[in-house]
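Input sequence (194 aa), recorded before submission:
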Amino acid sequence: MKRIIAIVTLFVSLSSCSSLDVTYDYDRSVNFNQFSTFSFYPWDYKHGFQINEYDKQTIMTAIKSEMEQKGYTYQKQGGELAVSIFLTIKGKTSYKAYTNHYGGWAGYGGGWGYSGFGYGYGYGPGFSSTTVTQTNYNEGTLIIDVFSIANKKLIWQGIGSRQIEENLDVRDRTLPKNVAQILASFPKLKKDKK
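Predicted structure, token format:
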């Protein structure tokens, strides 16, 4: 039973470690309803080399889909908004400790006491062992910046960080979900926009 609990605890902790940590900020003075189109700004050379072309395309397709669902129209060039994407990858190490407790034992024995010779039960010492495991992993941070082309001003930024998924099939499924989480707070266009 103790082993099952330990395995479940380890699974839960690994799952929570790999969840996406999202933050965002935006210019509260900007009326986003004045914009209707967007284009992509080219990947930054300094950060673009850290990701393969397939993953770049997956991210851009997911952003395009999310923006269109919010009412914006994609233009290859000349959009009123420019979406700029940065990705950073950092090596990290996590430590997990598991302590296995072994309880004491009750024993029957005799000995000399103040009142003479007697027998009784006593509690023996317990012990425990702690195992520490070290895991090296890569954490990826995806930064989505949205600029107003008219004044070249940053008006919205979303950041998502999580452990990079090494399994390519799983990564294909999680990248669009991660992008959706990052852009969840991006303002939708009002339907009565003219």
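Checked by second reader. The CA atoms of residues 21 and 89 lie 15 Å apart.
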